[in-house]
Structure formats: structure tokens, C-alpha cells
Amino acid sequence: MIEIIFGPDDLTRIRFARSPLEELVHSVPVLAGTRRAVVHGPWLEFAAGRVRGLDLRVLLALARGPRVVPDFLAPPPQALTGDLRDELDAIAATPASAVRTALEELGTGERLPAVLRPLYEDPERELPGLVDTMAAYWRAAVEPVWPRLRALHDADIAHRAGQLTTGGLARVFEDLHPEARFEKDRLMVDKPLHSARRSADGSGLLLVPCVFAWPRLLVLHNEPYQPTLTYSPRGIGRLWTDEASGRTAEPLGELMGRSRAALLAHLDLPVSTSQLAAYLDLTSAAVSQHLSVLRRCRLVTSRRSGRWVLHQRTALADELLGTPARSAAPGP
Fold this sequence. Notes:
Mean pLDDT: 83
Number of helices: 13
Number of strands: 11
Low-confidence stretches: 242-249, 325-332
Shape: globular
Distance between the termini: 14 Å
Strand content: 5-15%
Structural class: alpha/beta
Helix content: 40-55%
Order of helices and strands: EEHHHHHHHHEEEEEEHHEHHEEH
């Protein structure tokens, strides 16, 4: 469990931001295959050919891990609209001690991969090359789709800002992610493999929508960074839709209907009804109806976890979607 404790000043310093760098970093596990890519399949087909010829070994070793991304690789954006060049400059300026500390956490007690040893031994020498690689990767794989990502960010930030205005933080976290809840003066994030408690100390909280973070909730809680949650925005189910035909490219959509096919694609990990409704821009009632049909067809299972009912697709649904067996996937 991760706890972030807020004082009175923190509640006046809650803000939203969009970050090109977050999208860049979290697209890497999708490209590497360590984060399932059913929802982002059209982007993966587009990007895979465009990054050929780039030496991504260091970037992949840093960003592809299933649990931890080094803090210095995605520092909190300083403005509502992050500028990639400024964010990359912040990486290049990371103190050597901070780089080594983050790499030690990434290794989780195991020996650091050989490809990362030069970065650990001499961060000042190696960081400029890493930044250049990230810029080249951005131009090839993410910049062409950035207008789509940015539009989804803007729509979600507008929605969440309205929730914050009318109902405070408790309202924002009602459907943000099943792992997060707000209780009185603290944010609780259910991460069984992590244990941390931190006072925000007047720095507030930063909320960053990130399409490629789907379906996870990512937490930056280490000092001296501002506490940051990176979450999946609403409407991802329509992100890669072919606007000309109004249909997704997946043939499964032609068989069982676009909404149910998209819903199955989003059930890679346990997800709540309200979260599915947000991702797919459907009503909760419509999602519940689709889930009932899919359960009867043995394509979805549902279970209660605290105040949430979480749904996940079955092995049979994995076969229909053409995804790898779940047992071969990386841990949470």
C-alpha cells in the first residue's frame, strides 16, 4: 500500500497536466511486448516498422519493466501543457546520485542489466545519448499520433476538473482507478508489492492522464518529486477507431459487435464497471448489459474486491482476441 498524506495547503495545490514524455515512456513496454497491446494494436502495427534502425536497448531496459519505471525517466511536468524538449532537458540535468538511486531501485536487489552499467557508472556522460534516443523514438513512433493523444487528455482533464469542482477529491477518485481511493486526509493506492508513506508537505498532487499507461495506475511518490498519479484517460476505446468507417479494425468487432469487442480488449486486467464505462464512453448500464452477455458466454468473470466489482476476460476470450496466455505475462 502507498499512502500520501495531505495537509490543508496540499488541497489547494492539486493540478492536472499533460505530458508528451509520459506517453513516450509508457509506450515503450507496449512496443516491447511486456505490457499487453490489444487495445493499442493499430498503433503497434504502425510504430514497429518506424523504429527499426534505432538503438533502443538502454531505453527498453529502463522502461519495459512490469513494476518500476526509474523516477528520473518521467519527472512530473511543470506546466499544464508539457513541452517534450523541456522534459528531456530535465532528464539530461538529473544529478548523478539520483540516477544511481533510481537504477538501484529498478534492479530490486538483483544485478543491474549489463546494458545499464555505463549509465550507472557515468550518468553525466550517458544521459545525453539517452535523451537523443528518446527524441528520435518520439519523432518516429509517438509524435505522429500525438494530436489524438492530446485530444483525449484534454477531454479527460476537463471532465476531472469538473468533478473536482463539484465534489472534491473524493468525487475524482470514484471512477479514476480501482486501486486508488481518497480517505479524509490521505490518498491510498493499493499496490501489494510496494509499501510507502509520504506527507505531501505542501506540494499537493499532480494528476497526469496517459493513454499508454492503460490499464495501470502509476504512482510517483519518492521525494523530492511532487506526488504524481499517472492514469488512463476516458475514451481509450475509441482512440484508434477508423473514423471513416466508424468501426474498429478488429474482425472480432464484426462478429460480436464493436462495443463488446472493445470491452473484451479492455479486460486484460481486472477493471470495474465504471472504469470500463469511462474508457469506452458508454453508460454504466450499457456496460453492465454487455458484461452479462459476455459472462453467459464464458468470456468474462466478475468478482467483488472491497467496494468494487472487478471484471476480467477469460482464457477463452484471450483465444478469440489472439492474445498470449495470461500465465506467460509479466507480473503486476
